Amino acid sequence: MEGRDAPASGPDERAQRSSNDRLTLAAVSGLVLAVGALYGPVLLKLWRDWESDEGYSHGVLVAPIAALLVWRQRDRLRRLPRGPSSGGLAIVVVSLMLFAAGSLAAELFSTRISLIGLLAGTIVYVFGWKHLRVVAFPVGFLVFMIPLPALMLDQMTQSLQLIASGMGEQLLRAAAIPVLRDGNVLTLPTITLNVTDACSGVRSLVALLAITSLVAYLDEPTTASAAALTLSAVPLAIGLNGVRIAFTGMAAARFGPQVAQGFIHEASGWAMFVVAFLLIWLLHRVMRAARPSLGTTLEHA
Q1: pTM of this prediction exceeds 0.90
Q2: Do 101 and 117 have their domain in common?
Q3: Same structural domain for residues 187 and 269?
Q4: What is the rounded (10 degree) CA torsion for 152, 157, 160, 165?
Q5: Sign of the torsion angle spanned by Cα atoms 93, 95, 100, 101
Q6: Which of left, alpha, beta for 188 (phi over 0: left; psi -120 to 50: alpha)?
Q7: N or C: which end of the chain has fewer CB atoms below 10 A?
Q8: Which residues fall within 8 angstroms of residue 53, CB to CB, at 6 or more apart?
């Protein structure tokens, strides 16, 4: 049997592609207009928060990184069949209701998080669930650009303050330095250390989670290993913050109270963040090296 060339695209197929392209352009244009009209003031306030809050200064980078991650998937997205779903419209409606409720209650987190829901719902409504699954991480990654709600931030801050001060107390005692702890206040012979909100480690934890999740998404082969690597940032950041407080107390006892404030204090925070990232990277390398040996073990089991 003689082979035959595949038939060229007919007028109907070309017309369908043209219609799909127009639909895509209309959806993107509509989303941009909606974001501009509804979310302009919200995004402006978010930008000001990034500028004024050092703990969320990384937020300005989140959206460009998410866009690059979607761009990396462009060929895969083109090959997927389009399957618009009315479920996306339901997500859009719920997101707009959340936006309205947040606006009426002057609750910034709700209005901001609704934008992510609006984006996800639009993708499902125009392209389908398969497309959303492909870009699920980039869309979800946008969460890291939104500051935590005040109530959650306060509760996390108080809990982490107590944990960090407790760890600092134990490490100082292990180093034979007399210390008395009252809540989040550590009293040493030469200085009193107050573990303030800024020293709780909440903001560095959020930034570390963002970086770790990105590394896990790009280089971990399974969802389970990516989740394990990402979640490892939580105990690591908390533990290193306790070490930082203990180190500050030791340095103050040895060199005087001036090392517990100003530039040296700020530099120690950055140093611990770098150490945390290096340890995350080391754990990632260990997990990566263990995969071939684990696979060989399973094959011979």
Answers
A1: no
A2: yes
A3: yes
A4: -160
A5: positive
A6: beta
A7: N
A8: 147, 203
Q: Are 77 and 24 in contact (CB under 8 A)?
A: no
Query: Is 207 contained in some domain?
Result: yes
pLDDT by 10s per residue, the chain, length 301: 344 444 445 555 555 556 666 666 676 676 677 677 788 888 888 998 888 877 788 888 999 999 999 999 988 988 888 888 889 989 999 999 999 998 888 888 999 999 999 999 989 988 899 999 999 999 999 999 998 888 888 888 888 888 888 888 898 888 888 888 888 888 888 778 877 766 777 878 888 899 999 989 988 888 888 898 899 888 888 888 888 888 888 887 777 666 667 666 677 777 888 888 888 888 888 888 876 654 443 333 3
Q: What is the CA radius of gyration of the chain?
A: 25
| Cβ atoms within 10 Å, residue 75 | 7
- Of 144, 177, 211, which one is at a domain's C-terminal end? 144
126 shares its domain with 164: no
User: What is the C-alpha to C-alpha distance for residues 202 and 197, in angstroms, rounded to an integer?
Assistant: 8
For residue 120, the enclosing domain spans 11-144
**Total domains present in the chain:** 2
List the structure tokens of 153: 């931030």
110 and 48 in a common domain: yes
